[in-house]
Amino acid sequence: MSETKNTDRNNETAGGQDRPELRAALQEIVGSGFAGVQLRVNDRGREWVGSAGVRKLGESGEPPTDGHFRVGSVTKTLVATVVLRLVAEGVIGLDDPVADSLPGFGLDGRITVRMLLQHTSGVFNFTGEFEPDGTLLPGIPAQGREYVDGLSRTYRPQELVLLALSEPARFEPGTGWSYSNTNYVLAGLLVEEVTGRPLASEMRRLVLEPLGMANTVSPEGSPEIPEPHAHGYYRYEDEGRSKLADVTRMNPSWASSAGDMISTTEDLHTFISALMGGRLLPAPLLAEMRTPHPESGDFRYGLGLFVEDTDCGGTVFHHNGGFAGWAALMYSTPDGGTTLTASLTVGDGELDFAAVAQAFEKAKRRLVAEVFCGGSRTAS
């Protein structure tokens, strides 16, 4: 099912040692309720790829190891990199007020570009916010039948921002931390305003084309996903009955530049290893990107990156992503020498939203432990 590989894209051994612990981890993930998983591990020049589960319910084929998938909030690291590349070019400053470039929204003049990237703006999250007592302050439909019924709807990014700004700010700019998708929709609009070009064009110019990431795309509202790909599913309640929807084809404009991109495990490896290896940003900007803001607490969030200490004493940088039916992982050691990139698709189990999130967290911990702390390997 899964084996070490060098250059071929199939599941045939191409030399090097097998990784039975990774094969076992994939089976455990599928056993926890996911339909399928594909995994790519690059470890100091040696690559291992594998998959488990099924590509599509009702069929026996495993997910393709070169399959495309929706990366969710991994998009944020890509967008943050574009913004920081523009900072390096002198097009914009990290501490410039966002309202100067986007005057039409009535943004608080104290909100800076840096605050968008590190989630310290205080702007409400358009997909909803949880109060400390667990009460949900709703945003656009992101769960249930209303979400499924709206999968073909097109949202304009300006519409998402205005919805968020119709709600009170979470805190004064720069005084707290709260993960808000709205920050990255604003970041995308900012890129377009200061360059005069679509975000997708700047993404290609500054990141995708220099790295040869030909399989990474910004759908820009298209429901299509390139072949090959696995299928993601979403179970929801409708008038007291449990229903299952195939959410593979969907209009991702509701996520906009906070989470709409499509990629592959190979392209995500190419990106995160180049970023961590210093091939995309000047050293001072990369250092800022990797420095967590104090207000982010245990989340340890920098500029589009999470910082995580491993159980074996090392450090990894990452950004994961997920929404109904899909999840993605992207991890790297500080030098980019060891990376973990993966896609998980939700199946037909009776997992509710909270149970899926719990299973995803368990799968993430298992894979990180195996890749960065397994055997004699430690995170650098």
TrEMBL record:
Pfam assignment, any one: Beta-lactamase
InterPro entries for the chain: AmpC-like, Beta-lactam-related, Beta-lactam/transpept-like
Coiled coil: none
Ranges of biased composition (kind: Basic and acidic residues): 1-11
All copies of domain Beta-lactamase-related, residue ranges: 23-343
Domain of life assignment: Bacteria
Annotated segments matching region Disordered: 1-21
Listed name of the protein: Beta-lactamase family protein
Organism: Nocardiopsis changdeensis
